[in-house]
Amino acid sequence: MSKLENVLKASGLIVGTGLATYGGMELGDTLNDYLSQRYMIPQMTQGLTAFIVGTIGNRVLRNVLGKKRISESEAYSIAALNAFANATNDSRNVSVDRSLEQISENLVEVMVDSDGKRSLGSGLMITTDGYVITAHHVIDEMIKNGGRGMVKTQEGTTYSVSKENVWYNVSTDIAVIKASKVFEYSQPIKVKVDQDCKLKKGDEVRILGFRDGQKYNTMGIITDQNHTWKQEDGKVIHDLFQTDARGKQGQSGGVIANGKGELIGIVVYASRRNGEDIGVIGGAKLSNALTYINQIAAKKSAKMFL
Q1: pTM of the model
Q2: pLDDT of 20-42, one tens digit each?
Q3: Which domains, from first to last, does the chain contain?
Protein backbone atom coordinates (compact mmCIF):
# COMPACT_ATOMS: atom_id res chain seq x y z
CA MET A 1 0.00 0.00 0.00
CA SER A 2 1.35 3.41 -0.98
CA LYS A 3 1.89 6.29 1.41
CA LEU A 4 -1.09 8.13 -0.11
CA GLU A 5 -3.35 5.14 0.43
CA ASN A 6 -2.22 4.86 4.05
CA VAL A 7 -3.02 8.52 4.58
CA LEU A 8 -6.44 8.11 3.00
CA LYS A 9 -7.13 5.02 5.07
CA ALA A 10 -6.17 6.76 8.30
CA SER A 11 -8.18 9.84 7.34
CA GLY A 12 -11.19 7.68 6.57
CA LEU A 13 -10.94 6.00 9.96
CA ILE A 14 -10.83 9.36 11.73
CA VAL A 15 -13.68 10.82 9.69
CA GLY A 16 -15.84 7.72 10.02
CA THR A 17 -15.35 7.55 13.76
CA GLY A 18 -16.13 11.24 14.10
CA LEU A 19 -19.29 10.93 12.05
CA ALA A 20 -20.57 8.05 14.14
CA THR A 21 -19.92 9.59 17.52
CA TYR A 22 -20.56 13.28 16.82
CA GLY A 23 -22.23 14.02 13.50
CA GLY A 24 -25.09 11.59 13.96
CA MET A 25 -25.60 12.58 17.57
CA GLU A 26 -25.79 16.26 16.64
CA LEU A 27 -28.37 15.57 13.94
CA GLY A 28 -30.32 13.39 16.36
CA ASP A 29 -30.45 16.23 18.87
CA THR A 30 -31.65 18.64 16.20
CA LEU A 31 -34.36 16.28 14.98
CA ASN A 32 -35.63 15.93 18.55
CA ASP A 33 -37.40 19.25 18.02
CA TYR A 34 -39.22 18.16 14.88
CA LEU A 35 -39.82 14.40 14.88
CA SER A 36 -41.92 12.11 17.02
CA GLN A 37 -39.96 10.72 19.95
CA ARG A 38 -42.17 7.71 20.37
CA TYR A 39 -39.88 5.27 18.56
CA MET A 40 -36.56 7.01 19.26
CA ILE A 41 -36.40 8.15 15.62
CA PRO A 42 -34.01 11.05 16.33
CA GLN A 43 -31.64 8.78 18.21
CA MET A 44 -31.69 6.08 15.54
CA THR A 45 -30.28 8.66 13.13
CA GLN A 46 -26.96 8.56 14.98
CA GLY A 47 -25.78 5.43 13.25
CA LEU A 48 -27.78 5.92 10.06
CA THR A 49 -26.29 9.37 9.50
CA ALA A 50 -22.82 7.90 9.68
CA PHE A 51 -23.91 5.20 7.26
CA ILE A 52 -25.36 7.62 4.69
CA VAL A 53 -22.50 10.10 4.78
CA GLY A 54 -20.01 7.28 4.99
CA THR A 55 -21.49 5.64 1.90
CA ILE A 56 -21.03 8.84 -0.08
CA GLY A 57 -17.42 9.07 1.03
CA ASN A 58 -16.93 5.41 0.34
CA ARG A 59 -17.97 5.79 -3.28
CA VAL A 60 -15.01 8.09 -3.72
CA LEU A 61 -12.52 6.14 -1.62
CA ARG A 62 -13.33 2.50 -2.39
CA ASN A 63 -11.82 2.70 -5.88
CA VAL A 64 -8.53 3.71 -4.26
CA LEU A 65 -8.72 1.36 -1.28
CA GLY A 66 -10.52 -1.50 -3.00
CA LYS A 67 -12.96 -2.04 -0.11
CA LYS A 68 -16.70 -2.65 0.09
CA ARG A 69 -19.38 -0.73 1.89
CA ILE A 70 -21.01 -2.13 5.02
CA SER A 71 -24.40 -3.78 4.65
CA GLU A 72 -27.77 -2.25 5.42
CA SER A 73 -28.25 -4.62 8.36
CA GLU A 74 -24.89 -3.52 9.78
CA ALA A 75 -25.97 0.11 9.50
CA TYR A 76 -29.11 -0.64 11.53
CA SER A 77 -26.94 -2.48 14.06
CA ILE A 78 -24.73 0.60 14.44
CA ALA A 79 -27.81 2.80 14.81
CA ALA A 80 -29.23 0.51 17.51
CA LEU A 81 -26.01 0.61 19.53
CA ASN A 82 -25.87 4.39 19.29
CA ALA A 83 -29.53 4.74 20.24
CA PHE A 84 -29.13 2.53 23.31
CA ALA A 85 -26.07 4.43 24.51
CA ASN A 86 -27.16 7.99 23.73
CA ALA A 87 -30.94 8.36 23.70
CA THR A 88 -32.34 10.55 26.47
CA ASN A 89 -34.92 9.02 28.77
CA ASP A 90 -37.54 11.54 27.62
CA SER A 91 -37.25 10.30 24.06
CA ARG A 92 -37.46 6.65 25.10
CA ASN A 93 -41.07 7.29 26.20
CA VAL A 94 -41.14 4.40 28.67
CA SER A 95 -42.51 4.18 32.21
CA VAL A 96 -40.59 2.90 35.23
CA ASP A 97 -42.58 -0.35 35.27
CA ARG A 98 -42.16 -0.90 31.53
CA SER A 99 -38.42 -0.24 31.75
CA LEU A 100 -38.05 -2.86 34.47
CA GLU A 101 -40.16 -5.28 32.42
CA GLN A 102 -37.94 -4.76 29.37
CA ILE A 103 -34.83 -5.37 31.47
CA SER A 104 -36.34 -8.54 32.91
CA GLU A 105 -37.47 -9.83 29.50
CA ASN A 106 -34.04 -9.33 27.91
CA LEU A 107 -31.86 -10.93 30.58
CA VAL A 108 -29.73 -13.77 29.23
CA GLU A 109 -27.36 -16.41 30.56
CA VAL A 110 -23.73 -16.15 29.48
CA MET A 111 -21.78 -19.43 29.34
CA VAL A 112 -18.17 -20.33 28.57
CA ASP A 113 -16.98 -23.92 28.08
CA SER A 114 -13.23 -24.34 28.61
CA ASP A 115 -11.10 -27.40 29.47
CA GLY A 116 -14.14 -29.51 30.25
CA LYS A 117 -15.60 -26.95 32.64
CA ARG A 118 -18.47 -24.52 32.23
CA SER A 119 -18.55 -21.06 33.82
CA LEU A 120 -21.85 -19.25 34.09
CA GLY A 121 -22.92 -15.67 34.47
CA SER A 122 -25.64 -13.33 33.38
CA GLY A 123 -26.04 -10.47 30.93
CA LEU A 124 -28.51 -8.11 29.29
CA MET A 125 -29.21 -8.23 25.54
CA ILE A 126 -29.39 -4.55 24.61
CA THR A 127 -30.17 -4.83 20.87
CA THR A 128 -32.36 -7.19 18.91
CA ASP A 129 -29.37 -8.45 16.91
CA GLY A 130 -27.59 -9.90 19.92
CA TYR A 131 -25.33 -7.36 21.64
CA VAL A 132 -25.01 -8.18 25.34
CA ILE A 133 -23.45 -6.31 28.26
CA THR A 134 -21.90 -8.46 30.99
CA ALA A 135 -18.88 -8.62 33.31
CA HIS A 136 -15.42 -9.19 31.86
CA HIS A 137 -14.51 -12.00 34.26
CA VAL A 138 -17.60 -13.96 33.14
CA ILE A 139 -15.98 -14.44 29.71
CA ASP A 140 -12.36 -14.43 30.85
CA GLU A 141 -11.80 -18.12 30.05
CA MET A 142 -12.98 -17.47 26.51
CA ILE A 143 -10.45 -14.67 26.10
CA LYS A 144 -7.45 -16.33 27.78
CA ASN A 145 -7.92 -20.01 26.92
CA GLY A 146 -10.01 -19.95 23.77
CA GLY A 147 -13.12 -21.26 25.50
CA ARG A 148 -16.42 -21.57 23.67
CA GLY A 149 -18.72 -18.66 24.48
CA MET A 150 -22.51 -18.85 24.32
CA VAL A 151 -25.55 -16.75 25.15
CA LYS A 152 -28.76 -18.51 26.21
CA THR A 153 -32.11 -16.71 26.15
CA GLN A 154 -34.96 -17.28 28.57
CA GLU A 155 -36.78 -19.19 25.81
CA GLY A 156 -33.90 -21.70 25.73
CA THR A 157 -32.30 -20.62 22.43
CA THR A 158 -28.51 -20.67 22.51
CA TYR A 159 -26.33 -18.45 20.31
CA SER A 160 -22.58 -18.76 19.89
CA VAL A 161 -20.14 -15.91 20.58
CA SER A 162 -16.92 -15.71 18.61
CA LYS A 163 -13.75 -14.30 20.14
CA GLU A 164 -13.73 -11.59 17.46
CA ASN A 165 -17.04 -10.27 18.82
CA VAL A 166 -15.88 -9.60 22.37
CA TRP A 167 -14.90 -6.15 23.68
CA TYR A 168 -13.83 -5.65 27.27
CA ASN A 169 -11.98 -3.57 29.83
CA VAL A 170 -10.19 -5.44 32.60
CA SER A 171 -9.75 -2.46 34.92
CA THR A 172 -13.52 -1.84 35.15
CA ASP A 173 -14.58 -5.50 34.64
CA ILE A 174 -17.01 -4.61 31.85
CA ALA A 175 -17.55 -6.52 28.62
CA VAL A 176 -19.77 -6.21 25.55
CA ILE A 177 -20.26 -9.33 23.45
CA LYS A 178 -22.12 -10.03 20.19
CA ALA A 179 -24.11 -13.25 19.99
CA SER A 180 -24.63 -14.82 16.56
CA LYS A 181 -28.31 -13.78 16.54
CA VAL A 182 -29.32 -12.37 13.14
CA PHE A 183 -31.83 -9.50 12.96
CA GLU A 184 -31.98 -7.52 9.72
CA TYR A 185 -33.32 -4.25 11.14
CA SER A 186 -31.87 -4.12 14.61
CA GLN A 187 -33.42 -2.00 17.35
CA PRO A 188 -32.33 -1.22 20.92
CA ILE A 189 -34.36 -2.49 23.83
CA LYS A 190 -36.57 0.27 25.19
CA VAL A 191 -35.30 0.90 28.72
CA LYS A 192 -34.35 3.90 30.81
CA VAL A 193 -30.59 4.50 31.16
CA ASP A 194 -28.70 6.66 33.66
CA GLN A 195 -26.01 7.97 31.30
CA ASP A 196 -24.14 10.01 33.91
CA CYS A 197 -24.28 7.54 36.82
CA LYS A 198 -24.49 10.29 39.44
CA LEU A 199 -25.02 7.89 42.32
CA LYS A 200 -25.76 8.76 45.94
CA LYS A 201 -25.62 6.79 49.17
CA GLY A 202 -29.05 5.55 50.13
CA ASP A 203 -30.36 5.37 46.55
CA GLU A 204 -32.62 2.35 46.01
CA VAL A 205 -31.26 -0.36 43.72
CA ARG A 206 -32.60 -3.53 42.15
CA ILE A 207 -30.34 -6.41 41.05
CA LEU A 208 -31.62 -8.39 38.05
CA GLY A 209 -30.11 -11.37 36.28
CA PHE A 210 -30.66 -14.81 34.74
CA ARG A 211 -28.65 -17.92 35.65
CA ASP A 212 -29.29 -21.69 35.69
CA GLY A 213 -32.59 -21.06 33.92
CA GLN A 214 -33.86 -18.86 36.74
CA LYS A 215 -34.24 -15.10 37.11
CA TYR A 216 -33.04 -13.36 40.25
CA ASN A 217 -34.27 -10.03 41.55
CA THR A 218 -33.05 -8.56 44.85
CA MET A 219 -33.34 -5.13 46.43
CA GLY A 220 -31.02 -2.87 48.41
CA ILE A 221 -29.49 0.57 48.60
CA ILE A 222 -26.16 2.09 47.54
CA THR A 223 -23.75 2.09 50.49
CA ASP A 224 -20.67 3.46 48.67
CA GLN A 225 -20.96 5.36 45.39
CA ASN A 226 -17.20 5.30 44.70
CA HIS A 227 -15.58 1.97 45.41
CA THR A 228 -12.43 0.06 44.42
CA TRP A 229 -12.19 -3.75 44.57
CA LYS A 230 -8.81 -5.31 45.27
CA GLN A 231 -8.89 -8.98 44.37
CA GLU A 232 -6.92 -11.79 45.99
CA ASP A 233 -4.46 -11.94 43.09
CA GLY A 234 -3.67 -8.24 43.53
CA LYS A 235 -5.68 -7.05 40.52
CA VAL A 236 -7.63 -3.87 41.20
CA ILE A 237 -11.03 -3.05 39.65
CA HIS A 238 -11.80 0.66 39.55
CA ASP A 239 -14.84 2.93 39.31
CA LEU A 240 -17.31 0.67 41.09
CA PHE A 241 -20.10 1.22 43.59
CA GLN A 242 -21.27 -1.02 46.41
CA THR A 243 -24.74 -1.97 47.61
CA ASP A 244 -26.17 -3.83 50.59
CA ALA A 245 -28.20 -6.06 48.25
CA ARG A 246 -27.30 -9.68 48.85
CA GLY A 247 -26.07 -12.07 46.19
CA LYS A 248 -24.26 -15.33 45.49
CA GLN A 249 -21.38 -16.42 43.30
CA GLY A 250 -22.47 -16.66 39.68
CA GLN A 251 -24.65 -13.57 39.65
CA SER A 252 -21.91 -11.58 37.90
CA GLY A 253 -22.97 -9.94 34.66
CA GLY A 254 -26.45 -9.17 35.92
CA VAL A 255 -27.58 -5.57 35.84
CA ILE A 256 -28.44 -3.00 38.47
CA ALA A 257 -31.32 -0.53 38.15
CA ASN A 258 -32.27 2.36 40.40
CA GLY A 259 -35.65 3.32 41.81
CA LYS A 260 -36.50 5.22 38.62
CA GLY A 261 -36.15 2.06 36.53
CA GLU A 262 -32.88 3.32 35.02
CA LEU A 263 -29.94 1.03 34.33
CA ILE A 264 -27.01 2.18 36.45
CA GLY A 265 -24.56 -0.73 36.59
CA ILE A 266 -23.37 -4.27 36.01
CA VAL A 267 -22.85 -6.81 38.80
CA VAL A 268 -19.16 -7.70 39.14
CA TYR A 269 -18.88 -9.34 42.57
CA ALA A 270 -20.57 -10.46 45.78
CA SER A 271 -18.20 -9.74 48.67
CA ARG A 272 -18.55 -12.46 51.34
CA ARG A 273 -17.09 -12.78 54.81
CA ASN A 274 -15.70 -16.05 56.17
CA GLY A 275 -18.46 -18.58 56.59
CA GLU A 276 -21.00 -16.60 54.56
CA ASP A 277 -22.78 -18.11 51.57
CA ILE A 278 -23.91 -14.72 50.27
CA GLY A 279 -22.42 -11.24 50.36
CA VAL A 280 -23.00 -7.61 49.43
CA ILE A 281 -23.08 -6.86 45.72
CA GLY A 282 -20.66 -4.52 43.94
CA GLY A 283 -21.38 -3.01 40.55
CA ALA A 284 -19.47 -1.48 37.65
CA LYS A 285 -20.86 1.88 36.56
CA LEU A 286 -22.93 1.66 33.40
CA SER A 287 -21.45 4.93 32.09
CA ASN A 288 -18.23 3.00 31.38
CA ALA A 289 -20.15 0.39 29.39
CA LEU A 290 -21.81 3.15 27.35
CA THR A 291 -18.37 4.49 26.47
CA TYR A 292 -17.33 1.09 25.10
CA ILE A 293 -20.60 0.74 23.18
CA ASN A 294 -20.01 4.10 21.49
CA GLN A 295 -16.48 3.02 20.60
CA ILE A 296 -17.75 -0.22 19.04
CA ALA A 297 -20.32 1.69 16.96
CA ALA A 298 -17.70 4.22 15.86
CA LYS A 299 -15.24 1.54 14.75
CA LYS A 300 -17.96 -0.28 12.83
CA SER A 301 -18.93 2.97 11.11
CA ALA A 302 -15.33 3.57 10.16
CA LYS A 303 -15.33 0.30 8.19
CA MET A 304 -17.21 2.17 5.49
CA PHE A 305 -13.93 3.87 4.70
CA LEU A 306 -11.61 0.88 5.00
Answers
A1: 0.79
A2: 544 554 555 555 555 544 445 54
A3: 3-94+294-305 (no CATH), 97-190 (2.40.10.10), 192-286 (2.40.10.10)
